[in-house]
Amino acid sequence: MSTNWEHIDKCAKEWIKEAGERIHQAFRKTLTIETKSSRSDLVTNVDKEVEQFFIERIRQTFPSHRVLGEEGFGDCISALDGIVWIIDPIDGTMNFIHQRRNFAISIGIFADGIGMLGYVYDVVHDELYYAQKGKGAFLNDQPLPVLQPVSIPEAIICLNASWIIENKQVDPKQLARLVQEVRGTRSYGSAALEMAYIAAGRLDAYLTMRLSPWDFAGGLVIIKEVGGLVTNIDGEPLDLLGPSSVFVSKPGLHREILQQYIRK
Ligand code: IPD
Ligand code: CA
Ligand code: CA
Ligand code: CA
């Protein structure tokens, strides 16, 4: 039986908008905030409720689909066979708590490990970035053009300051040189939005040393549809079942940055 991707896409979009409404309503109430692994690793009642909301809807409508969610209410996934939804109910929880902006709902839907549908929803700005494999990427209903190459001196790259201080993954001196040689740097604190911004042409590259599949699953599908590249810092495809470094960029720039600033 063939999969009706249009139907899955329609449901995903409806549920994302409904989840966005719930997040808006939650702004009127007091948040319950907890820490997970450290004082910067936060979770709220809203992260948990939004993940549970998606899982309920998916299980009712598509009982054979499985879900990998950041907050752990989904399935225990050790292989990517069949249809798997990879969900980050709120990407940028620290921003959600402290800034009430710069966060997004992120969802990637995969069939036997291949990205078929991707969504990043900036709830506060009501901007839905989405893509379906082979059908292009969109911001709300506007098609996003294919990304064009850009040179290092004209590029705006997104990276967190913690990667240009001493760390185990990458040479901070090389990255500091990259920071000096590009036109500008930015850091928004939501990997999903940072990937969506590259897809929309607002940023040229994004580099980080550790993300989980739910952080990048939605963005990955969107970026590929506009001709961007997504790998780890060794230039290999991302692991959808575990943490990895992530390097997203426009074509051309990807090879140049990997070869001249990242490879040790
Ligand atoms: C975080 C954001 C952030 C990234 C962290 C992620 P969360 O996701 O994407 O930009 O630097 O590594 O954990 O926890 O807010 O969903
Ligand atoms: Ca988190
Ligand atoms: Ca996240
Ligand atoms: Ca999250």
UniProtKB/TrEMBL annotation:
Superkingdom, taxonomy of origin: Bacteria
Pfam family name, one: Inositol_P
Keywords: Hydrolase, Magnesium, Metal-binding
EC class: hydrolase
Residues spanning the membrane: none
UniProt-listed Enzyme Commission number(s): 3.1.3.25
InterPro entries referenced in this protein's UniProt entry, alphabetically: Inositol_monoP_metal-BS, Inositol_monophosphatase-like, Inositol_monophosphatase_CS
Catalytic activity as recorded in UniProt: a myo-inositol phosphate + H2O = myo-inositol + phosphate
Stored PANTHER family: INOSITOL MONOPHOSPHATASE (PTHR20854), INOSITOL-1-MONOPHOSPHATASE-RELATED (PTHR20854:SF4)
Annotated protein name in UniProt: inositol-phosphate phosphatase
Organism, scientific name: Anoxybacteroides rupiense
